[in-house]
Amino acid sequence: MKIKNDHYLTKISMITLFVFTLTFFASLISCDKEEDDPQGKMGVKGIYKITENIYTLYADNEKFIEANDKRGQADFCQVKTEIHKVKRVNNILTIEIYRPKNCNVKYEIIWDGAIMESHPSQAYLYVHAIAENCNDLKEKELDILIIDLEKTIKDIDKNTLKEIYFTIKDSCSLTDVYCTEDCNVTVTNG
User: Fold this and answer.
1) What is the pTM of this model?
2) Is the distance from CB of 110 to CB of 64 less than 8 angstroms?
3) Backbone angles phi, psi at 99, to 5 degrees
4) Which candidate, 145, 153, 54, 163, places its Cα nearest to that of 94?
5) pLDDT (tens digit per residue) in 33-85
């Protein structure tokens, strides 16, 4: 009888070892997503830019890191601008910015291409003004940037996009504007 019990114990040990090994390898395979997405982010695959009227939106992590590293530095800030208001209705984001009058300004909207998978999901956008020959700094004019998020934030379906909270970061005045859901946030009085 003892030989028969030893045989069963050996079989049970082999089955246990097999199940453990299978579980171990299955857990390694399931971790691949975490390696691809170590910070809990979703977003676009690749770099792109979209130009509309007076702004260009960049989905570019390196450009975002540069804006973050140079934020507020005099050599990075060519012109003094101020975010006046940020408004969002559904997936249309409007940014109103004061700039010097008679100054030709173009804007870069810089996104790192990532959506932070938190609750709620979040994304960060830098607004950076590019200008030349801005001499009259006393009088101001208002520029209005209208960003259709469905067209500019690619690879994210519109229902998910509606749930994302955006933080608009002025690259020179160091102002951050938090836009949660549909928002209407006034920052300056002009």
Assistant:
1) 0.75
2) yes
3) -135, 165
4) 145
5) 334 444 445 566 678 999 999 999 999 999 999 999 999 888 888 888 899 99
